[in-house]
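ESCALATION

Customer reports they have been waiting on this structure for their group meeting. Please prioritize. Original submission:
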Amino acid sequence: MQISEIQIIPIKPNNGLVAMASVVVENSLYLGSIGIHTKLNGNGFRITYPTKSLSGKNFNVFHPINRNVALDIEQAIIAKAEEVLSYQNKKSNEYVGHSNTNNTERVL
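Update from on-call: job pushed to the front of the queue and completed.
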């Protein structure tokens, strides 16, 4: 199965949700609003498919019904998410920021 045009959009972490994803399947079907969450044990990521809430009930917007398709999509998204999020973390760790303005020592 061909999974292409994988887009990962990092977001401010919220209850384990760290990014949103979209993919194109077989150059024919666009799937968006796929959530990327950190696993509860903190090791790696998991994905969730969108739901719609109507009258207090949740309905699936879409999701794979074949285990192999689900794994192909999940592996493609998680591989790209690891790449994007590790790059983002690396860049944020390189930020130096402002100097310490609380230092009152003067050198003449």
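Sent to customer with the following note: Confidence is low (pLDDT under 50) at residues 98-108.
Escalation resolved.
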